[in-house]
Amino acid sequence: MVRDKPSNFEAPLNEILMNAEPNxxxxxxxxxxxxxxxxxxxxxxxxxxxxxxxxYPAQTTADVKKK
Length: 67
Fold this sequence. Notes:
The protein is mostly loops. The chain has 1 helix and 2 strands.
């Protein structure tokens, strides 16, 4: 997840990630919600107090909502 606004939204995703050096967060679409695209403002809510599985990399389920 890129926390800062990319300077060029037309850049390839790998370039945006290389420049932003974000802490990694993977979002896989397994629910029936609108796809998230580069530039979208989203909130990520981890239900049940934010429990994260003890695995590497850490995994959890979350609700992704467009703002």
